[in-house]
Design a protein that fits this description.
alpha/beta, Rossmann fold, 2 domains, 8-stranded mixed β-sheet, 13 helices, 13 strands, about 40% helix, binds nicotinamide-adenine-dinucleotide
């Protein structure tokens, strides 16, 4: 029975969620994370980012004394199971930044022995798990290694964790058996496959979602350019018609979908034109909207208020949010741009909703936070989201 695990990157979105899932099963968690600010918040029982029920789970874990912490590698506590949840961004060439995981494996190597198991929970370029394992083998560390991707919707990790099967791609039978034994604490619904298959599965899923959103965005652009009411068309397509279900158009952004589509593109040797088309459509929606606002208003003497700066509704996460791209482009064309968001805490330019509403001539709902549903104003509002 596993009594304690280590989570590297344990203060991040994926890492902390998994830490809290473990502590809810009375498993102790050693959180290793270089972000001391987040660690200090966690120690005080404060979630460093928004996560449904996160505070409740965290306070319980602290009360039961189930968490320990380190920020320097010299102080890390290695356990039998060690889960890596570091960010895996792409570089300026839209290729994966392989070094992040290579560096952490090199740093961990002196502390590891053959009894240890590394579980990669970051989304990775296919082949990464085997490559990292080989690095350790070359260093005479014949440890166990598995890939166990996260599939939750950000912000709902605790709720969604056991709603669908867990995917596991282990490097060998011993690793697979141990990983399955560990995960059975949470659920018996486990799909095992080769590490590369599990890695590709995760990229396919995120790229699929990215492409699905791009279809909605493309349809919106086609209908709107022809002066047709897309909201009505969307209703006609989706109402009581299962096969017509397509998502709302809107800014498709965040730390995962775009970069994982680009990871798949790199893996396919750049033969993923559908992914590239999706990228142009999704990123281009901002430009489309700015052009429309420019066409319909004399922007140079107008103040534009952007409502919603996080990358998605009810979230405080601004990573890769297209609201910032909108702000950048609008700033070039308008008298001023003001921004507001009820959840975002790490942007000093953000003003209150009332301030932005009163001072702006035009409003744009960039993120469909529920509170904007009740917005009462006579000012022109641009909103492409449906049913939020
Ligand atoms: N956020 C999501 O909804 C989500 C969902 C599924 C998969 N993923 C994938 O999970 C991975 C992590 O994403 P995230 O959103 O949790 O990122 P994040 O930035 O929120 O978390 C990463 C954490 O790692 C820490 N870190 C960075 N370098 C470190 C180091 N050398 N040593 C120790 N800690 C270090 C950071 O301080 C941070 O707290 C990514 O590969 C992402 O694609 C994310």
């Amino acid at each position: 029975m596993i009594k304690e695990i280590t989570i590297i990157g344990g203060a991040g979105h994926v890492g902390l969620a998994f830490a809290l899932i473990c502590t809810s099963k009375n498993i102790k968690v050693h959180i290793h994370d270089i972000n001391k600010k987040s660690i200090n918040l966690i120690k005080k029982g404060i979630m460093p980012h928004k996560e449904k029920n996160g505070s409740v789970f965290l306070k319980k874990a602290i009360r039961k004394n189930l968490l320990s912490y380190s920020s320097e590698i010299d102080n890390i506590k290695i356990n039998k199971i060690n889960v890596i949840c570091l960010g895996t961004p792409i570089d300026e060439f839209l290729n994966p930044q392989y070094n992040i995981l290579i560096d952490i494996i090199k740093k961990l190597s002196p502390y590891l022995n053959n009894n240890n198991h590394i579980i990669i929970r970051s989304t990775v370029y296919p082949g990464t798990t085997r490559f990292l394992h080989q690095l350790l083998v070359n260093n005479n560390k014949n440890i166990k290694m598995s890939f166990f991707p996260e599939r939750f919707v950000q912000g709902l990790a605790l709720e969604e964790f056991n709603k669908f099967p867990h995917l596991v791609g282990s490097i060998n039978r011993k690793s697979e058996n141990e990983c399955k034994k560990f995960l059975k604490i949470f659920s018996k619904d486990i799909i095992t496959m080769k590490p590369e298959e599990a890695e590709v599965t995760k990229l396919f899923l995120n790229s699929y979602r990215y492409i699905q959103f791009s279809i909605a965005n493309q349809f919106f652009k086609i209908a709107d350019s022809a002066n047709l009411n897309y909201e009505k068309i969307n209703y006609a397509m989706t109402h009581k018609y299962k096969r017509g279900k397509i998502p709302s158009p809107g800014f498709t952004a965040g730390p995962c979908l775009f970069k994982d589509t680009m990871q798949l593109r790199a893996f396919s040797n750049h033969n993923f034109s559908l992914g590239m088309e999706a990228m142009s459509t999704n990123e281009g929606l901002v430009n489309y909207l700015v052009d429309k606002i420019k066409r319909e208003n004399n922007l140079s003497n107008k103040i534009v208020g952007i409502l919603g700066m996080s990358f998605k509704a009810e979230s405080d996460d601004i990573r890769n949010s297209l609201s910032y791209k909108l702000k950048k482009i609008l700033s070039l064309h308008s008298k001023n741009v003001l921004t507001s968001d009820p959840y975002v805490k790490n942007d000093k330019d953000i003003k209150s909703l009332n301030y932005v509403k009163n001072k702006s001539d035009i409003l744009v709902i960039a993120t469909p936070h529920k509170i904007y549903n009740k917005l009462k104003t006579k000012k022109t509002i641009y909103n492409i989201w449906i049913d939020f």
